[in-house]
Queue: 3 jobs
Job 1
Amino acid sequence: MRFHLIAALFGAATAIPCYELTSGSIPDGRQEGLGGLDPFDPQGRWDVVEAKDAWIRFQAIYPNQMAKDARVTKTVFEASPGQVRGTIENYNNNDGNNIQLWLPLKTKSLQYGHMLPGNMGPDHEVIEPQSSISNFQRVIVSIILPSAKGKLQEVRPEQPAQGEPTTNLKRAEAVGITGLKGKIDSSDWAYTTGLELRMAMYNIRNEQQKAYRAGRPWDKQSFAWILAEKADGNCMVIDFRNFDEFVVRMPPGARR
């Protein structure tokens, strides 16, 4: 989403809370929305964290639910292979025993969550998006930051004792859906909305396509980042400059 950071205009020297952000119309990239400041050189105003090695969860905001109540805030994860498989196989949570599952922050995950098209062209695997989170305007994205990488273990689903894995299990494994086990700190959390993340990803995709057709490098400085709110209410930048797998590769002859 395109942002205008009011506090930056006044030269704030401390961390900046997200409630001081407001949307603005920025025609030539999003960097101007930070009052002309470099999103990757915050000078103590906000943290910058690379997108790689993060985990994400898309959570629909239920009717009459506040958006913040859809955030995941727990710090202890205790998934078992059986629980992961049971949750994948029990889409509707009929017995009420499903656990929270997670996705690595990769292109497939963004496609699965409706943040990018399911079909990105011949250079990317076609991914079927999850229908329950199709209304991206009513989705909260909980992000486990890379600072938690050494604190958590991925827990893969238990495989069936006999026979082939079900369609649900195959689909989940193809996307990278996993359980987690371990303990993190509240500072390892950040949050954004489905709308903001989708707009940022589509802006990156559109910029890459324009750059390819023009025969120039794409403008990472203006587009390769999103803002997220930390658990303490302060904003941070999530840096997509080194998110190498998400680079649009267009077919021969497309540059025109």
Job 2
Amino acid sequence: MRSLLWAAAVCLLLAPGDTSDDEPPIDKEALRKAAHEMFMHGYNSYMKYAWPHDELMPLSCKGRIRGVTPSRGDVDDAMGNFSLTLVDTLDTLLVVGEYDEFEEAVKRVVENVRFDTDVVVSVFETNIRVVGGLIGGHMMALVLKSKFPSRLPWYDHQLLDMAKDVADRLLPAFNTTSGLPYSRINLKRGMLPYLKEQRDTCTACGGTMILEMSVISRLTGNPIYEEKARKAMDFLWERRHRGTDLMGTVLNVNSGDWVRRDSGIGAGIDSYYEYCLKAYILLGEDHFLDRFNTHYSAITRYVSKGYVFVDVHMHKPTVVSRGFMDALLAFWPGLLVLKGDLQPAIEMHEMLFQVVKRHKFLPEAFTHDLQVHWAQHPLRPEFIESTYLLYRATKDEHYLRVAKQVLDSLNENDVRSMSHEDRMDSFVLSETFKYLYLIFAENSDLIFDLDNYVLSTEAHFLPLNLASSQPDQLPRRLFIEPEHIEDEERSNRFQSACPNIPGGLSRSADALNAFGSSLRTRLPRRLFIEPEHIEDEERTNRFQSATRVQTNLGYIAKSTECAAGTNDRLRAWAFSASNTDHIKHLSKMGIEMEQHDGQVYLRYSEKAKDGDPSASCVLDAQGSLADLNASHSALSQMISLLLMIMLLWMVVMCSTFVLVTLAAIARRVLRARGSPAESQEKKNE
């Protein structure tokens, strides 16, 4: 029955909204207009000050030109002097209803953009932004022509032809032993010798090609693009760790050996997981879903720590490889929506929203206790993408309020100092504002059906009618509403295809909304609850029910003891010895911290009631709380010192013995050499 799922792509039920009595109603129309106005301000600024260059420098009011403006390193590999922002933004123009400007933009791209340029670009970025942007523009051009026959009368698949041209220029990058593409290529001269020496690529770079390349193949009839992308996906699947089913971050394109074995859901891996599931949605092939489910189980087991996520070593998942999360993992709740697993999506989104509320926006990186790790924020779309998909699935007005807060904060960039940066990536217009507009838009505001498309990782529209076969048991739609289930037979098929939605359709939708509301209201409106916040027995019980949240975010309840002989354990991945808030909390609980021998020592200074000495706890690299008595620690240090002295004495004695032995041997050799001379002298006499 699982094969029925792909016909609908995603089995989600749109539920009635849940409006709280103490919240003012959301004016969706006003917010949609505000999102439209902000998008057009950014777009018009790009066209006025930057076009035909790739990006706008909003503070300098000029275009960013590859090879002319100061280099930003690998970030500039997304640019190829091909009007990147305009190409990436084509389909957004039609989404927001700017039909005249869309026609003009298509004409500008067709007449002015060329790809026969001697410039080295990222294969990954060029695929998702340029190939994807041209495909999305082509699909929207067909929509506009079908809706208004008088528009674009001259258009004859030129954008699709341009997408094919770019794909042809990327194909030489796939000529590797493994089939994984090299990370960079020269658009005019192909794989130059020095580019072939750069053999390392990220998992996401090789695993985020299948959607765009499959669409090119199926729209043009040439299978080569899909074949190359499939081979890369198949190889990555074979390179997973067979014991954990986790993926590393960087590997060699020829040998397939892992260069970086860090495993998580953020930068370097993120869109590989996304395309495993979306390839199933687009192409309807069960093995893509099998792969995603296998990875999902591994992520749930090793990477997910309640509401937060850690990076671990793929071969040793009990060892955490870094102590912060990056903003790119905010796509995960939205992906879980597409899978139909809404409860963990709601939970993780709420954690991310706590970060947004604290810092006005999602920092580029933040620690597990939700402090800023890297304050830069280039207006990334992942969080608002997940917010949009959760609203589509639940119709809970909470997500409209979240989107409103994001909209209100978009004029602020660096989330610590609230300063601005002279940078506007193409995804700001192609993704961020697209999702902001869509979440406030009604179906009547659009001239096409959103559910006939799946959005790529760059938010470009890819049609769902390209699957090899199309069974007619269920509507071919991304989201399925109750009215699409026309009879009992189809209703039963829908339920059997979606095991994550138990019970009746409307009942399960109500339960999801109730779960989200309960998650936000059952505790005081604080993510971190300290002992002084617990005022009575009732709230104490409520606090204890949230212990999972507290522990996972690295806070230690006052009741947590680390006396010798206890079995309590504290996971070290959430604790940062350089975090001043952590140290303050430890101090409030009477815990002193020391660092030496590569370890963090926590000492509880208050004497135990039975007169036992103070206890010391060591947080080791494996994330465990080791129990050490303070006297044991001093004794171990003394023993170590004695052992070092003994070792030094042995080295000195051995060295002396060797020197004496060598001297004796040398003396004998010299004496032996002198004997013949003395004999000859005596003979002469």
Job 3
Amino acid sequence: MGKPKAPTPPDPKETSAASTGTNISTAIANSWLNNANQVTPDGTITYTKTGEEKITDPYTGKTYTIPKTTVTTTLSEAAQKIKDQTDAAQLNLGTLANNQSSFLNEYMAKPFDGSNEAVESRLMELGRKRLDPLIAQQNEALQTRLANQGIMPGSAAYDRAMAQQGQTTNDAYNSLLLSGRQQAFAEAKAVRDQPINEISALLSGSQISSPQAQGFNGSTIPTTDNAGLINENYNQKMNAYNQQMAQRNSVLGGLFGLGANLIKFSDKRLKTDIKKIGKTTDGQPLYAYRYKAGGPMQLGLMAQDVEKKRPDAVITTPSGFKAVDYGKALMLGA
């Protein structure tokens, strides 16, 4: 049986080139499928091929062409008019903000002063008009209560009670100043920030949104794993090759197992259903056949063929038919 020829391994660069080329083609197809032109009530969005870009694979050296796409948004007639008006309004607001902001250089150069003695004086003036009569009434009521209790001026109990009343009075004035000062500070800060806030509002302006196109879910083409397919095909060929080698070794092993001294009738005239199935390692034809006398299908050599290559392995029997010494024919003893 002739020795099978092993399949040629795939070339890495050719495999890489096949895979890269397929992937790039798939990516380009996906790009066009996923970027459909869109029409909305506010306008249209159009994808147009406007050029090409060449890229070279540094591994294989192959060059691929990648299309360049331009996206164009076109507003409807009504939306375009709105945008023109809005752009004009924004320009006016921007111009106004620019003019108004020029004074900020001098305005912001003056640090904000949170202290204001005039405010505190005014707060105290207004607050005392209400607090002083109330405190006087509280002092008079305290003195009357102490006298009724027999606590006279100059005593420790009297001095202690009057000191507590003085602390209460002081807390009332401090609360007046603190709460009033906080409100005054907030008002002053608001006045300080007002010009800045006005200019910021002018700068923000109103804006028109782009057309709200509906999302498009295009069909996605899966990337073809050409490298995997090529390697899988190679593996399949290798499996077939291994099976052929196993079959060949099995057949030859069976023949070799006949023994070095076996002499067997192998004359072509004694056989039928002859079919050539391969060659031995030294090139002798190997056949499948049946004996005309009957019996199962067998494998073996043909005496007429062996006679040409190993004449010493062929014997002519008294019956006139040829037999083969398989030990000599297959050089089992060599």
